[in-house]
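TICKET: design request
STATUS: open
ATTACHED STRUCTURE:
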């Protein structure tokens, strides 16, 4: 592999072990590496995940070797995406991202690392840093984006004491959940509600949908814009949450968002209701979508039908899901 890429064996081993992070390469060398991997037959989808993997490495590096200036923290510099969150989860929990897990090679007799899992000491240090960063970012000048993203990522630490700290910190922010419709705290409220759902408390997310999302055009647009960005439908990185306020909905492809929502449907309590409401809002904003891809519409109709048969959603979600199901069957 080293010979095929035109590098020495030590460099190749350094990339594999993490001693020489790809993010430290010169831009031109990294560009050539990506193109060479493609020419050698590497899966384009996996090569495309290198950016998210390097983003995750930057966040982990900032936690394990903090600079002391939280204004330079990577979580303060850009809104991270689902792919970056999945890469972080891979290093923190050992659960492979769906895009990678589907392409994992068959086990061989040769010793191989199953996941880029951090050691116990590094995981403890990572989450301790996140909690300290979230607390520091609450102070004046600390940064709303940094606080929101650091606090959300602490929900990946499932230890009893850690989960208790995160739940307490999130519940301390419940005041932001009381607002109706769009507000300057809307993104923080959404993140707080979803993090609480991750910890097993779906009610704040259900309340958020009912009070801070439904029937408010600006909030509905913000939710669609954020989902499109989270699922990789917005190509340009965003340095803050202001992109969510675009009421024109022109920065992303609706079919790409529909595909991401359809095949990424999360059945956990609370999350499934957010998916259902977003699907309903997307089809309301773009009623032509079922005609754009009959295969996609068929698959979504099947999933919607199973959800309706299985229950486990709120009353609002059942109404909206019934509408989605009817529209899909009527227009395909």
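STATUS: resolved
RESOLUTION: sequence designed for all positions
ATTACHED SEQUENCE:
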């Amino acid at each position: 592999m080293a010979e095929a890429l035109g590098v020495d064996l030590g460099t190749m081993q350094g990339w594999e072990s993490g001693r020489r992070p790809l993010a430290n390469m010169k831009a031109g060398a990294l560009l050539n590496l990506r193109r060479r991997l493609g020419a050698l037959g590497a899966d384009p989808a996996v090569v495309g995940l290198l950016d998210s993997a390097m983003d995750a490495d930057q966040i982990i590096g900032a936690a394990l070797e903090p600079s002391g200036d939280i204004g330079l923290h990577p979580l303060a510099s850009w809104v991270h995406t689902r792919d970056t969150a999945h890469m972080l989860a891979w290093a923190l929990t050992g659960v492979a991202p769906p895009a990678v897990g589907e392409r994992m090679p068959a086990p061989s007799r040769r010793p191989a690392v199953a996941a880029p899992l951090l050691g116990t000491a590094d995981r403890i240090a990572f989450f301790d840093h996140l909690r300290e960063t979230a607390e520091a970012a609450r102070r004046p000048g600390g940064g709303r984006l940094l606080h929101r993203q650091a606090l959300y990522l602490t929900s990946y630490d499932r230890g009893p004491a850690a989960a208790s700290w995160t739940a307490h910190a999130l519940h301390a922010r419940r005041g932001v959940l009381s607002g109706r419709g769009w507000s300057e705290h809307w993104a923080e409220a959404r993140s707080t509600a979803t993090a609480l759902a991750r910890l097993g408390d779906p009610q704040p997310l259900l309340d958020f949908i009912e009070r801070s999302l439904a029937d408010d055009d600006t909030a509905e647009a913000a939710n669609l814009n954020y989902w499109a960005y989270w699922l990789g439908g917005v190509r340009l990185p965003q340095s803050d949450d202001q992109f969510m306020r675009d009421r024109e909905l022109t920065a992303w492809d609706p079919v790409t968002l529909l595909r991401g929502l359809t095949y990424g449907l999360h059945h956990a309590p609370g999350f499934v209701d957010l998916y259902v409401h977003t699907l309903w809002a997307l089809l309301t904003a773009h009623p032509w979508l079922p005609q754009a891809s009959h295969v996609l519409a068929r698959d979504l109709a099947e999933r919607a039908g199973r959800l309706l048969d299985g229950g486990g959603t709120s009353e609002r979600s059942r109404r909206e899901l019934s509408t989605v199901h009817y529209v899909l069957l009527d227009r395909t």
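CLOSING REMARK: The radius of gyration is 21 Å. The longest helix spans residues 120-137.
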